[in-house]
Design goal:
α1 runs parallel beside α3 (about 85-95), α1 (about 10-25) packs parallel to α20 (about 430-449) and α19 packs antiparallel against α20. The chain has helices at about 10-25, 55-70, 85-95, 110-115, 125-130, 135-140, 140-145, 170-175, 185-195, 220, 240-255, 260-270, 280-285, 295-300, 340-355, 355-365, 375, 385-395, 410-425, 430-449; strands spanning about 45-50, 75-80, 105, 155-170, 195-200, 200-205, 285-290, 310, 330-335. Strands 1, 2, 3, 4, 5, 6, 7, 8 and 9 form a nine-stranded mixed β-sheet that branches. The two termini are about 30 Å apart. It is globular. The chain contains 20 helices and nine strands.
């Protein structure tokens, strides 16, 4: 499951952060692993689990995992409530009381900083240590990174999304291209070879480079550069990190090479819904796409009229040795700090996030990437060649994600807005745009504290 940041704006993220700050102040309950947690003494206890999955295949998969957990822990019963958005969970945690969930999962990794800093989720670090679980040896490095904030391990990864390159092998053969590109210079050259114009539009576009192009985001592309976003002082370093400027310059250059912003955007209006058979990669309107592992299932089910394959997304020419890396995000899971059933909640969280069979079964059912190193190597994992690409990206030590901040994905939204302005020409001065955006990011973080 992937949740885009496109529906969020910096102001909304700052407001959400402020709400969580109030939430932290309002939380007066205390967690308990003692007498009030009946499961610790083997007595029956029911925990409430809120999650965001809503499709039939997804809810069946999570319910199957719950059934397997309850067989292992007969005295712990899990009441699952699906289709819960983050804002509803936040409101419930703020209000407290008997209706508050014990365990919560979220598709928005950007919210980890808010959950950890406001202490609405329990720090799981002591529980991991007590049970002999070394997070660094257990979880995929990038996935572990997005589940903690300033030393607080308030969440754990539960499956993930990994991004790579999808390419039309039939179109590649017609253009005389024999292998997927590994560097951005190769990628640009292939995108141009694959582009077939038709007057003021296209018969086929090699790649849609604009930031309105579905999964294209600054954070997705910057993972190929290894950007860090923030310095050791906690302030945005996007104006001083040459990798960030290089990414925006590359993307802007590719827009120009493929016909210019106006022509590309006009063509983009002919695309269908991203999550349908009218997706432009499925229809053959674009020959290459930046997308997540879930697309493999859609392409197989929809039986597209061409051969296709996957590969890691290219990297900058001066970082060719890092080829194989990619951007990662995913689902996070935590325990409400005010839950009076911490022991039972932890047993459930530990099971679904660290048990290899549970993760593999879940990953196979919903076509996401499992989040532990053991599950990535499990022979029970359904991993044809196309999906295996994403497993290898997940294991790659150079793979990257976006760091947690106190105000969620506000900085990512600011960088996306800058991308819109640069590619369209509204901001002709890249350096000035980066400087202004860095100031905006720092001001928003200061306001949220």
């Amino acid at each position: 499951m992937h949740l885009s940041l496109r529906s969020r704006r910096p102001s909304a993220a700052v407001a959400a952060s402020a709400a969580l700050a109030l939430l932290a102040a309002a939380c007066t309950g205390t967690s308990s692993t003692g007498e009030s947690d009946l499961s610790a003494s083997g007595k029956d206890v029911t925990i409430t689990f809120w999650h965001g999955w809503s499709q039939g295949r997804e809810t069946k998969a999570i319910n199957d995992n719950i059934t397997a957990f309850e067989k292992l822990h007969p005295n712990i019963h899990v009441k699952a409530v699906g289709n819960i958005a983050d804002d509803k969970a936040e409101q419930a945690l703020r209000a407290g009381g008997p209706g508050t969930p014990d365990v919560v999962s979220s598709f928005t990794t950007a919210n980890v900083g808010k959950f950890c800093s406001s202490k609405v989720w329990t720090d799981l670090g002591p529980l991991l240590k007590r049970d002999g679980i070394d997070p660094a040896k257990t979880f995929s490095p990038a996935m572990l990174k997005y589940t903690q904030y300033e030393g607080n391990q308030c969440s754990l990864p539960l499956l993930g999304d990994v991004f790579g390159l999808y390419y039309n092998k039939t179109a590649f053969a017609a253009a005389g291209i024999t292998a997927p590109p590994k560097t951005f210079s190769e990628f640009d050259a292939d995108a141009m070879k694959l582009t077939i114009t038709a007057g003021d539009t296209y018969k086929q576009l090699g790649f849609m480079p604009t930031f309105h192009g579905y999964e294209n985001t600054p954070s997705g592309f910057l993972a190929q550069y290894g950007a860090t976003y923030f310095g050791t002082d906690g302030k945005s370093n996007i104006a001083s990190d040459p990798k960030v400027a290089a990414m925006y310059a590359w993307q802007k250059g590719l827009v120009a090479k493929l016909g210019g912003y106006d022509k590309l955007e006009k063509y983009r209006t002919t695309f269908g819904d991203e999550f349908s058979t009218k997706n432009p990669f499925e229809t053959g309107q674009v020959a290459m796409a930046f997308d997540g592992e879930w697309r493999t299932a859609s392409l197989a089910e929809d039986k597209v009229a061409f051969e296709w394959a996957t590969a890691p997304f290219p990297v900058p020419d001066d970082q060719a040795a890092t080829y194989g890396r990619g951007y990662q995000s995913g689902t996070i899971m935590g325990i409400a700090r005010t839950s009076q059933k911490q022991a039972a909640a932890w047993e459930f969280v530990k099971y679904v996030t660290t048990d290899t069979d549970a993760l593999v079964t879940f990953a196979n059912a919903i076509h996401n990437v499992p989040s532990t190193m053991a599950s990535l190597d499990s022979p029970k994992l359904d991993s044809g060649p196309a999906f295996r690409t994403f497993l290898e990206i997940a294991k790659n030590p150079y793979s990257n994600t976006t760091p947690a901040t106190i105000n969620g994905n506000a900085y990512q939204a600011s960088m996306l807005t800058l991308g819109y302005d640069i590619e369209s020409g509204r901001q002709p001065d890249l350096r000035q745009g980066l400087a202004n955006t860095a100031k905006e990011i720092n001001a928003a973080i200061s306001q949220a504290k």
